[in-house]
Amino acid sequence: MITDAGRPWLAHYPAGRPASVTVEFESALALFTAAVAAAPDAPAVCYFGRTLSWAELDRASDALASLLVSRGFAPGDRLALYLQNDPAFVVGLLAAWKARGIAALVSPMSKRDELDLALRDFAPAALLALDDLYEDVARGVLQQGDVGVHTVVTVSPSDEQDRGDPRVFEGMSRRRPADTLDLYALVGSFSGPGPQPAAPARSDVAVLAPTSGTTGEPKAAMLTHGNLAFNAQTYRDWTGLRPGEPVLAMAPVFHVTGLVAGILVAFLLRSPLVLTHRFHPAVVLDAIRECRPVFAVAPITAYIALAEEPALAPGDLSSLRLAYSGGSPILPEVADRLETVLGRYIHNVYGQTEASSPTHMVPPGTRAPVDPETGVLSVGLPVFDTMVRVVDDRGATLPPGRIGELVTDGPQVAPGYWRRPDETALAFVDGALKTGDVGFMDADGWFYVVDRSTDLINAAGYKVWPHEVEQVLATHPAVQEAAVVAIADDYRGQSTRAYVALRPEASATEVELIEYCRGRMAAYKYPREIEIVHALPRSVTGKLLRRELRRRRPGGRPR
What are the pLDDT digits (tens) for 512-553? Predict the structure, then answer.
């Protein structure tokens, strides 16, 4: 536990919040069982006009867990979830835990080869999938080789909803693949009781969560019940959320942010969880108007999309008292513009999949400072019981203001990667996570993330951080966003290349933008090449995928 009152960030903690908290629940499953016991008939999920109670979720997950156990699902086995932000995801998550197993998260954007890699890695005993994803992708993967799956259950996104929103469900038919079991047919015929497993221990693995893969092939972090329960409580205690206040799952629940900040926070608060299948700005706005959520965490790209949605009207976000953004750094200019349009200050939250989401947050009602030298917006303060150091290449702790790698130690840090002992040994040292993020702490204890350590550009021996160039480009009135990568340069070794997305209705040429940077940056920093693109490649959580940009062009010879 953190007890050293001399840590500079403690003075900025939310009013009345201590440096340490007592964790109330041993496991993520215990959050749910407590909600069921307290108010079984209270609303648990809001989904397109349909409200599911805690008792209904309990019964549905009992039915699926009983099926799994009857088919030989053993403690530690994996149930792969190949779903969107649907009620079935919550049912599958709970069923895996009730069957004493692990939920293996698979992105529904995964295509055939990606799904094949994921299933071979996770070796799940069972798969719960959307019926269209099963027929279009998963069936072929399962037929081409043995990946261990012996039970397949499917569900339609249109299940458990009472309003066939054409923006979401138009053209979507209930497929019911004949070679699978139907989830809600199974639930309808279930007479109980469900399995009665021993309560999970804090150290038991609850979820296999793939990392964002921003620098290479994704790995899966082994998140324990204790990791998840701690960070769900962190969100509640840090923000001051009250029991029963609705929670909007605006981030994907198949990623750690949506999982913890959406599903598990709703469990802990015994609050309605607002789901919208996928992120569609107009659909999300309708859900906010209807269900009046108080809290949401989402990529900054989601808030940008809301701000640009023509259907947005004054007061639409009036219920959203606490809006947080994670997944990608926010430029100060973007934060200011969003506050003007949305009428809400977007607070930063920062963390990694390996740390089960938040390690740093901006206190509610507090504006994140901007570092005057780098122009970077702070990602926040370390949360409860979390120790963060900035270290140099040798692992020595650096003083405030010095740039190095952020290393995080706390109850939310996973024990390692699934089936990757060598990579675990490199990233997790004495229980602390080497984040790979480069940044610094100021004298007041606020933390700033500059870039990924792998993104550093070495131009003729000079270090160039991509954010330096990106921030200059962001000041151009025509630029919406920009991303910078290294390119081969026979003269300097490396130079910078920028990809730029322009604002709607704006115009600018590549030459104009290069000259704009040339007049505002040192000669070794400004981009030698610029390409204007429709949009930058991002993960589902909004993280910029620089590797995709690096693949677009082989090494060149700019001078």
Answer: 999 999 888 878 788 999 999 998 988 766 777 877 887 776
Mean pLDDT of the chain: 90
Two tokens at 483? 């991303």
- The residue out of 178, 199, 220 marking a domain boundary is 199
Would you state the structure tokens that stand for residue 110, as one six-digit string?
């995964």
pLDDT score, position 504: 86
| Residue 483: Cβ within 10 Å count | 24
Task: Decide the pairing of beta strands 432-441 and 428-429.
Answer: antiparallel
Q: Classify residue 171: in a domain, yes or no.
A: yes
Q: What is the distance, to the nearest Å, from the Cα of residue 298 to the centroid of all Cα atoms in its chain?
A: 8
The CATH number given to whatever domain includes residue 468 is: 3.30.300.30
Tell me which residue range forms the domain holding 475: 456-550
Q: List strand residue ranges (DSSP E) for 54-171, in order.
A: 78-82, 102-105, 126-130, 151-155
Q: Is residue 133 part of a domain?
A: yes
Give the tens place of pLDDT for each residue, 90-112: 999 999 999 999 999 999 988 89
Confirm whether 132 is domain-assigned.
yes
Q: At which of 159, 184, 199 does a domain end?
A: 199
Which amino acid would we find at residue 128?
Answer: L
Pairing verdict, β 347-352 and 357-361: antiparallel
pLDDT tens for 473-521 read: 988 999 988 998 888 776 666 788 999 999 888 999 999 999 999 888 8
Query: Please, which residues have CB within 8 angstroms of residue 339's CB and are 6 or more apart in sequence?
Result: 345, 346
For 456-484, the DSSP string reads: -EEETTEEE-HHHHHHHHHTSTTEEEEEE
* pTM value surpassing 0.70: yes
d(CA 96, CA 52) in angstroms, rounded, equals 19
Q: Are 463 and 456 in contact (CB under 8 A)?
A: yes
pLDDT at 217: 63
- Residue 10 — pLDDT band, cuts 50, 70, 90? confident
**What residues contact residue 200 under an 8 Å CB cut-off, 6+ apart?**
26, 27, 28, 29, 30, 97, 100, 206, 225
In tens, the pLDDT along 378-389 reads 999 999 999 999
| CB 499 within 8 Å of CB 482 | yes
pLDDT in tens, 147-190: 889 999 999 999 989 888 889 888 787 888 999 999 999 999 99
Q: Find the CATH number of the domain harbouring 160.
A: 3.40.50.980
Beta bridge partners of residue 182, listed in sequence order: 154
Domains in the chain, number = 2
Name the residue among 517, 527, 504 with its Cα closest to residue 473: 517
Q: Is 316 exposed, middle or buried (0-12, 13-18, 19+ CB in 10 A)?
A: middle
Q: Report the distance separating Cα 522 and Cα 525, nearest Å.
A: 5
**Under 8 Å CB-to-CB from 517, ≥6 apart: which residues?**
469, 472, 473, 498, 525, 526, 527
Q: Tokens for 271?
A: 């609050």
How many Cβ atoms are within 10 Å of 488's Cβ, its own excluded?
15
The two structure tokens encoding residue 495: 């130079």
Q: What is the DSSP letter of 169?
A: H
Exposed / middle / buried, residue 52 (Cβ in 10 Å: 0-12, 13-18, 19+): buried
- Tell me whether residue 186 is in a domain: yes
